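Form 12-C: Joint structure prediction
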Amino acid sequence: MPGRSSGFIALVVTAMTFCAAEARAQESPRHAGSDNTIAIEHAEIILAPSGAKMMAGYLTIWNGAQQQANLSSVQSDAFASVSLHRTEIVDGIAKLRSIDAGLSIPGHSELFMKPGGVHMMLMGPRAELKPGDGVDLLLKFQDGTTASAKAVVRPMGQKPTDHHHGKDDQQEEK
Amino acid sequence: MSVVLFRKILWILIAATLALLVYLSIPGTSIKDNSPAPGNAETVGPAPGGPFSMIAHTGETVTEKTYAGKGWLMFVGFTNCPDICPTTLAEMSSWFDALGAEADGLTGFLVTVDPERDTVDVLRQYISSFDDRIVALRPSPSELANFAKAYRIYYAKVPTQEGDYTMDHTAGVLLFDRDGKFSGTIDREEPKEVALQKIRRLLDRR
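Section 2 - Result
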């Protein structure tokens, strides 16, 4: 039955393509760190325009554990205050809101901070920062655990590293 | 119709449906027009634009006539905005950079929606971080209300828990051609090449 088998082959090929697409979506957050832990990556602080009172910082948190992680706050001795904020763009309108209840990161998921999304607002630097400097951050979770990270200071106007694979990976212009 | 033929057609239908599902499920394959929109088609009522009078970061009073004959890139924001305001203005600077002398017929604006905190001194210092073809403008509160209406800008003061406040504001960059005609927007997520294409087209419009 040649007709039937060719139809079957078409189905199998289609199904395989489908599975491959699914698998790609699954494995996309690739991380060097161990699989069962919290991994903080791409921590960056972008210098503010001249005279501005606040800087923005970005990082990604990979929660490799089964259970949800709840980030409650970020602290740094290098700043008077660090708070979590989210820029929501609704119908073309930018709304900056503080995240007071913390952020939950489901198991095997990534929290990805970016301009126009979740970010850290850092105010009152204790010392003048310049590009390339390292700033220690301490992330506190609701279960009492902490994770530390070193953020790299980037020049004003630089986009934070876009961690998602594919598009924008090499977007490190200027 | 034979059963074999019927089965064949059925299989083909299943395969086609699956193929369509796969196509739709792969990110980036959805049909999306990335080409710059020619002007703004869906504006109802008068197009954005019109007279304004504000204080520039240089201290002088300026009006729309000060920048007549130039293409405008207009962004509204405020300096107590760590995330998208510096990002957008840095991007705008990069457009000026990329266009070089081509952009001499172009003026960028940051119009503050927070004149209360953004004094001329604050704006002067802040805007010095960006391309010097970008001007910071401070309207008085009543001018801001008029400007927002005429230019179809949204802004709102929103109290924060610390007893402070933040500003909601229109996020995109508004384009005006050399005749002062509203010519569309550049949205935050648009790639640089698209932004540059829109700006070049803006400068060519007469």
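Section 3 - Comments
The two ends of chain B are 65 Å apart (CA to CA). The domain at 53-204 of chain B is CATH 3.40.30.10 (Glutaredoxin).
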